[in-house]
């Protein structure tokens, strides 16, 4: 029997010993511009590290759309997964009956760093300053990936191995669909529980909203045999964007959920991209508006789609031009439902104990204003899953950063949590 207090002290010391190496590992990951759809080079690096340094059995493959497109958790992409590898490193337990299986899963992809000129330093060259590390993906979520990898490394370098099966999974396309995580689960890489290192300040999440992506297209040109008429489409964009903002206000005024009472506007609608025109002296006739709208747990994707369609139709019905030129609306990318967690489960209790032992503080909870891959585990595979990771800021914005001391603490929490959940013994 391994003494838990002694084990924790050993793991904590080992994390301290490995800290500079962990920091350099994180900086190396940030230097890979692993935008969604371009995760391949980073995944090759991680697959090699899991094989050579951690001695895990590694599988690497790309999501197969035909195997997941009928799944209720599938989100329809407009892109391929040719350069979007899934990497899974597996340790087979030596005595499975004495522990529980566990997955640590992070996502390799990051969002665009544009406008890169607004960053204080290059988004792809990590900058260490005042206890923070700046760079695209530093918090979301390469800091967490470094923590989960070095937590396992601390265990094996202390001379222990997990008694039960353990996996490190790094998946692609979390930022656009979550299909990478879904493909890994559908391929049979499941466990009793999972942890995802979302960077929300060492607080375990108890709920997250869903997300639906949309694209609204406008066309303002008409042609027949005798004449052609057209209107400047940019002049019509304001009607649609104003309608979308009104839709967001309407949803937050008419929908609520007790778990999200700490958030002022949990149903966020974000207009993320507007495209129109190509030349200063041309009259633009095509435009698109792309965005994302949230869903509370229990709300259905199909219902939110219909609500948005009906809202835009209603908001434009008195405009003669829109009567003759109705916008078209397409839904692609995220089709994600919201989820809730039972924070009294054994998984939460084990993580709470590890958090308290490392940080000497009481664990706290929070809900997430975004969607994560945790939904797949919870909704479709009955796998208890926690999002818990380091402190960070400016996610999806200029000058993203992660707090370095929090990464060290999280690494220690993960190591203690993994050891207690799976059980360990000397090699």
Annotation, overall tally of beta strands: 21
Q: What count of domains describes the coordinates?
A: 2
Number of helices: 12
CATH class of the largest domain: Alpha Beta
Radius of gyration: 23 Å
Shape, per Cα inertia axes: elongated
The neighbouring-strand order within the major sheet is 1-2-7-3-8-18
Structural class, judged by helices and strands? alpha+beta
Distance separating the two termini: 13 Å
Largest sheet: 6 strands, mixed
CATH superfamily of the largest domain: Zn peptidases
Percent of residues in helices: 25-40%
CATH topology of the largest domain: Aminopeptidase
Q: What percentage of the residues does DSSP assign to strands (E)?
A: 15-25%
Keywords: Cobalt, Hydrolase, Zinc
InterPro entries: ArgE/DapE, Peptidase_M20, Peptidase_M20A
Family: Belongs to the peptidase M20A family.
EC number: 3.4.-.-
Protein described:
- This protein is of the alpha+beta class.
- It folds into 2 domains: 4-207 and 339-426, Aminopeptidase; 210-336, Alpha-Beta Plaits.
- The longest helix is centred in the middle third of the chain and has 21 residues, at 234-254.
- The two termini are 13 Å apart.
- The chain has 12 helices and 21 strands.
- It has a 6-stranded mixed β-sheet with strand order 1-2-7-3-8-18, sandwiched between helices. Strands 4-5-20-19 form a 4-stranded antiparallel β-sheet. The chain has a 4-stranded antiparallel β-sheet with strand order 13-14-10-15, covered by helices on one side.
- 36% of the residues lie in helices and 24% in strands.
């Amino acid at each position: 029997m391994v003494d838990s207090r002694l084990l924790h002290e050993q793991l904590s010391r080992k994390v301290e010993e490995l800290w500079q190496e962990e920091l350099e590992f994180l900086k190396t990951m940030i230097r890979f511009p692993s935008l969604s759809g371009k995760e391949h080079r980073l995944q090759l690096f991680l697959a090699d590290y899991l094989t050579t340094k951690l001695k895990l059995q590694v599988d690497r493959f790309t999501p197969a759309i035909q195997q997941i497109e009928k799944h209720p958790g599938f989100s329809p992409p407009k892109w391929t997964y040719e350069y979007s590898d899934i990497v899974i490193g597996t340790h087979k337990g030596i005595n499975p009956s004495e522990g529980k299986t566990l997955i640590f899963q992070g996502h390799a992809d990051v969002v665009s760093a544009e406008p890169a000129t607004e960053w204080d330093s290059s988004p792809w060259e990590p900058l260490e300053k005042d206890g923070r590390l700046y760079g695209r993906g530093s918090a979301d979520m390469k800091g967490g990936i470094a923590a989960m990898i070095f937590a396992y490394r601390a265990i094996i370098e202390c001379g222990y191995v997990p008694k039960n099966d353990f996996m490190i999974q790094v998946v692609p396309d979390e930022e656009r669909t979550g299909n990478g995580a879904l493909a890994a689960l559908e391929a049979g890489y499941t466990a009793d529980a999972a942890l995802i290192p979302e960077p929300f300040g060492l607080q375990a999440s108890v709920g997250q909203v869903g997300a639906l992506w949309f694209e609204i297209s406008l066309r303002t040109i008409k042609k027949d045999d005798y004449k052609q008429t057209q209107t400047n489409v940019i002049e019509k964009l304001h009607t649609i964007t104003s309608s979308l903002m009104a839709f967001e206000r309407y949803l937050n005024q008419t929908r609520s959920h007790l778990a999200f009472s700490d958030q002022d506007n949990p149903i966020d609608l974000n207009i993320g991209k507007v495209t129109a025109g190509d030349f200063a002296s041309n009259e633009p006739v095509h435009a698109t508006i792309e965005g994302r709208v949230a869903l509370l747990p229990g709300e259905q994707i199909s219902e939110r789609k219909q609500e948005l369609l009906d809202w835009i139709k209603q908001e434009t019905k008195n405009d003669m031009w829109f009567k003759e030129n109705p916008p078209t609306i397409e839904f692609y990318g995220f089709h994600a439902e919201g989820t809730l967690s039972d924070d009294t489960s054994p998984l939460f209790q084990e993580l709470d104990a590890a958090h308290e032992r490392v940080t000497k503080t009481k664990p706290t909870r929070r809900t997430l204003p975004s969607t994560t891959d945790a939904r797949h585990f919870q909704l479709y595979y009955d796998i208890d899953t926690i999002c818990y990771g380091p402190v960070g800021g400016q996610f999806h914005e200029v000058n993203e950063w992660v707090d370095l001391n929090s990464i060290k603490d999280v690494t220690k929490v993960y190591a203690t949590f993994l050891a207690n959940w799976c059980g360990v013994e000397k090699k």
